[in-house]
């Protein structure tokens, strides 16, 4: 798959990182979401934790925002991360991984590995600012953390290391993003 060719989120609100002031519903009161049966890599689902401003738990890094991989084997990959309390939602295109970071399969990811892919179950937890994912609650297979020097996100997927930068606005000069915004009627100007 050519990740660089896929649409980025076209809603400018996706790029705003709100203040976590405790207003709105608690993360536990917002229903968990999964990848929909009609999911498409170029259609981003609505934000799941929109309006939830619960402060992050101790030990959690603030990974909220839209991130683009600029270095590593997943170059061009884009993901949107939402967080509140002990919950994190990672969306890429139509794929939704929504989880509580309590180390259990019950509250972790229960979704597909990709759109139309096989079922996965993943336990998640925070440890010293590192988001750790354990498929079937076995070994840590995926981590995400912030690089304190650059502010980049370091995403380890198996043995592959990727560096991502936070985007601050929709790239309407990107052909697939522009097309998605036009189709949704949200292209500015």
In short:
The chain is mainly beta and 189 residues long.
Key traits:
189 residues; mainly beta; Lipocalin; ten-stranded antiparallel β-sheet
Average pLDDT works out at 94
Any idea how many domains? 1
Q: Oligomeric state of the chains? A: single chain
- Give the terminus-to-terminus CA distance: 32 Å
Query: Which structural class should the secondary elements be placed in?
Result: mainly beta
| β-strand amount | 25-35%
Please name the CATH topology: Lipocalin
Task: Walk across the major sheet and give the strand order.
Answer: 4-3-2-1-10-9-8-7-6-5
State the CATH class: Mainly Beta
The coarse silhouette is globular
Flag low-confidence runs: none
Describe this structure in words.
With 189 residues, this protein is mostly beta strands. The protein has a single domain, classed as Lipocalin (Beta Barrel), CATH 2.40.128. The chain is 5% helix and 33% strand. It contains one helix and ten strands, in the order ββββββββββα. A hairpin with a 6-residue loop joins strand 1 and strand 2. The longest helix has 10 residues. The radius of gyration is 16 Å and the shape is globular.
């Amino acid at each position: 798959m050519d990740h660089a060719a896929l649409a980025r989120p076209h809603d400018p609100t996706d790029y705003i990182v709100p203040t976590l002031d405790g207003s709105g519903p608690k993360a536990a009161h917002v229903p968990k979401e999964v990848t929909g049966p009609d999911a498409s890599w170029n259609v981003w689902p609505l934000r799941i934790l929109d309006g939830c401003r619960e402060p992050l738990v101790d030990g959690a890094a603030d990974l909220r925002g839209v991130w683009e991989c600029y270095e590593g084997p997943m170059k061009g990959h884009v993901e949107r991360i939402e967080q509140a309390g002990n919950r994190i939602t990672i969306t890429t295109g139509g794929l939704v991984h929504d989880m509580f970071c309590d180390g259990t399969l019950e509250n972790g990811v229960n979704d597909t590995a990709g759109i139309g892919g096989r079922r996965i179950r993943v336990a998640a937890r925070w440890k010293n600012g590192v988001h750790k994912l354990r498929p079937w609650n076995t070994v840590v297979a995926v981590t995400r953390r912030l690089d304190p020097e650059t502010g980049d996100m370091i995403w380890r997927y198996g043995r592959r290391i990727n560096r991502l930068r936070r985007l601050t606005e929709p790239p309407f000069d990107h052909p697939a993003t522009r097309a998605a915004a036009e189709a949704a009627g949200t292209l500015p100007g």
